[in-house]
Amino acid sequence: MNNKGLILLLAIFALLSLNVNAQQLSKENDWQNQDLKENKVMGVSANKAYAELLAGKESKTVIVAIIDSGTDIEHEDLKDNIWTNAGEIAGNGIDDDNNGYIDDIHGWSFLGNAKGEHITRETSELTRLYKKYSKKYVDVDVESLSAKEKKEFDEFENIKKDYEKQVTDNRNQLQNVMGFVEYNKVSIELLKKEFKLDTINAENIKSLKSKDEDVKGAIDFQKYVAKNKITTADIDEALEHFSKALKYGINTDFNPRDSIIGDNPEIMDGFYYGSNDVSGQGAVHGTHVGGLTGAIRDNGAGMNGIAKNVKLMIVRAVPDGDERDKDVALAIRYAADNGAQIINMSFGKSYSPEKYLVDAAVKYADSLGVLMIHAAGNDNNDLDKKDNFPNPLYLDGGKAVNWLTVGASAISRDKKMAASFSNYGKKNVDIFAPGHEVYSSVLDNKYGLNSGTSMASPVAAGVAALVWSYYPNFTATQIKDILMKSVSKQEKLKVILPGSKKEKVRFGELSVSGGIINAYNALKLAEEMK
Questions:
Q1: CA–CA dist 424, 497 (Å, integer)
Q2: Staple partner for 352: which of 5, 283, 389, 497, CB 3.0–4.6 Å?
Q3: Which domain holds residue 377?
Q4: H/E element holding 216?
Q5: Do 275 and 222 fall within a single domain?
Q6: Domain check: are 65 and 184 in the same one?
Q7: With a threshold of 0.90, does the pTM exceed it?
């Protein structure tokens, strides 16, 4: 395998990495809570705020809805902070509070049914659009199309190009990983035989030398693997990732929706499908997200969430694959109707064919004074030039007021402070928050690291909940205003532009606020405004 192929695979392994032995990180395993001056990390200064500003003060519980893949509500660091619907009697099969959802004790899943079946994987929205329009425009006479159809056909041509590229890329990457696996095995056996060793590891590979080209190539390969700490688990995860993409994400024949939900996901033909199983299957992402906002503080287990007096309402609407607009719309409405003051949305996609459904739900939540916080996305795109959905910009004009779009920042105040994967935008990304290698809860009472704007968003949601809990009389609009005005300003710091290798920009050019959310500053400003 050539060096270019190895470098590509290294990037893939890095992107796929989730659970690491974070216990080795000492102070870094809580860095999102820490302070730049005291701890030399770009955290949100939550620990400092509790110690210096909040001792002895009373707070009011804030409900934060986690719209995600599901959350492990029995996790040791979350269970006491899970929202319970006071109007519902558990297990009686009756909609006691008349909200349309039976036994919704801790929230609702729009990805399940009464038989206990769950949608865990889905296709991408690109795949669904390709499938839909391929049928419509097969062997079409372009000249016979109306102006509206011609516009749609032109959009389909772009969709087709993107889809076919994704299929090709995933097949090639799977072949690359399989080639890596094969050569890894061959090179190890060659070196064991050549040097009469029982094992090949990071220590003994250092001393091996040979003039034979095949042996020398095997040595170089294994040194590269050792240097970059590529493990069997990394390789297996890469294999699984690309295999799943081909089997599910970009497979036009895969459709779990019909058998499990049985609705038409393109129209709002009913509000009350789903189940009360909010954990579902594969809830590792939602569990990590929930922990960052509201893991129990100072209980001696795992890690501390940002907000102390918080309840997490769990709304399951995000499968492994692209979420459906209809599910997102209903999840937002459910959260708003059942008392959520903040909605965290750590998901996103490049296409939104039923955006009008989501827009209507966002307008509804906005009118009720709910603060919606959304991850900016992990494609290192400029959102002033390229869309990421959902977003606060309505199809019919106008914009949601109570909405924050959050980019991801890293631990150090240096040129790498803007996470390399994070989307950005001087107009359409509001704020940045810690989102690179942050430590939080995962399944089975365990903990791990994850990176993404998916992590930055719940950190921001935690800061919002923290401020609101101590200043409950503020509106969502005022809370947003406080968060934006109280950022840790880093406008002039030169950072590497996300997606670039060397190009530098001022950090202030990457978002509206030009800074990183800061709990200490926000609480001081809230006190002044009170």
A1: 9
A2: 389
A3: 44-121+263-529
A4: helix 213-227
A5: no
A6: no
A7: yes
Does one domain contain both 93 and 137?
no
Residues 365 and 495 in one domain: yes
CB 457, CB 406: distance < 8 Å? yes
Tokens for 507, please give them.
Answer: 């950090």
- For residue 304, the SS3 value is coil
The tokens for 119 are: 């949608």
The answer to whether the beta carbons of residues 219 and 191 sit under 8 Å apart is yes
- What's the CATH number where 275 sits? 3.40.50.200
- One DSSP character per residue, 264-278 reads -TTS---S--SBS-S
375 - beta bridge partners? 406
The tens-digit pLDDT sequence of the chain (530 residues) is 444 444 455 555 554 543 333 333 434 579 999 999 999 999 999 999 999 999 999 999 999 999 999 999 999 999 999 999 999 999 999 999 999 999 999 999 999 999 999 999 999 999 999 999 999 998 889 899 999 999 999 999 999 999 999 999 999 999 999 999 999 999 999 999 999 999 999 999 999 999 999 999 999 999 999 988 888 888 888 899 999 999 999 999 999 999 999 999 999 988 899 999 999 988 999 999 999 999 999 998 899 999 999 999 999 999 999 999 999 999 999 999 999 999 999 999 999 999 999 999 999 999 999 999 999 999 999 999 999 999 999 999 999 999 999 999 999 999 999 999 999 999 999 999 999 999 999 999 999 999 999 999 999 999 999 999 999 999 999 999 999 999 999 999 999 999 999 999 999 999 999 999 999 999 999 999 98
Q: Total structural domains in the chain?
A: 2
Is 1 inside any structural domain? no
- CA-angle at 60, arms to 433 and 336, nearest 5°: 70
Structure tokens at 256: 């779990």
Quote the CA–CA distance of 245 and 228 in Å, as a whole number.
25
472 preceded by a cis bond (ω within 30 of 0): no
